[in-house]
Amino acid sequence: MIGLEEQKDLFSLIGEKLKKKVECFVIGGSAMMYYKAKDVTKDIDVVFSSEKDWQLMIKILKGLGFRERDSKLVYFNKKEVPVLLQRGEHRFDLFFDRIVSFKFTASMKERITGVYEYGNLIVKIISPEDIILLKCATERAGDRLDAAELIKRADINWDVIINESIAQMELMGDIVPLSLYDFISELKQDLGVDIPDKIIKKIEDIAYKETVKKIKQGKHIKVEKNRKGLS
């Protein structure tokens, strides 16, 4: 497990090795530590909007003794997987442009809440809203616990999450509001997270409308698990 100070030390080490400025965006548990919503993370999740910077980061980490792992062993049945690099207990998950089933959009970049410089490594922290939305793409119980903790600590703008889910659907084709509805329903029902009923109903209505539209278009709808309460 990696704490915030240890993560910063790794970023500083990378920044010292870089010969030019490289920009990256920290997501997941790595970002949550900056919000004091998580003490440790098992891996450092980073996304790049520049392919050259992404490739350079891979090269630097390999030069520091990190070795590549098979992403498919960690990200089961996912279309877009990161490059996984590990050295001992330290692991980096390096994404370029896509994060599992999401695209890293300009609006996500605009919502960053903090910028940190570690030598030549510029680290930007994505918003709590985008952390929550990205976590709904997984089936891991730990991601639900993370989202629950973040919602308790931050003043979440649910309209931002809903609007981004619609934008992602238009970009990627998947019915993202359906995954979001499933995710927040579980947070409220199983973990007792305080999410307004009107927000859940709003997302349910969008998910239902988009699902019906897809079916009328004759498109296949993949349902990975039982959708609670969708009617």
Structure, explained:
The structure is a single chain. This protein is an alpha+beta fold and 231 residues long. 35% of the residues are buried. The chain folds into two domains: 2-125, Beta Polymerase, domain 2 (2-Layer Sandwich), CATH 3.30.460; 133-216, no CATH class. The strands form three sheets. It has a seven-stranded mixed β-sheet. It is built from nine helices and eleven strands. Helix 5 (128-135) packs antiparallel against helix 6 (141-153) and helix 5 (128-135) packs across helix 7. A hairpin with a 2-residue loop joins strand 10 and strand 11 (121-125).
* Number of domain modules: 2
* Net shape: globular
**What does the radius of gyration come to?**
18 Å
Tally of contiguous helical segments: 9
**Which regions contain 5 or more consecutive residues with pLDDT less than 50?**
223-231
Text of the CATH class of the largest domain: Alpha Beta
Provide the structure class: alpha+beta
CATH topology of the largest domain: Beta Polymerase, domain 2
Key attributes of the depicted protein:
single chain, 231 residues, alpha+beta, Beta Polymerase, domain 2, seven-stranded mixed sheet, two-stranded antiparallel ribbon, disordered C terminus
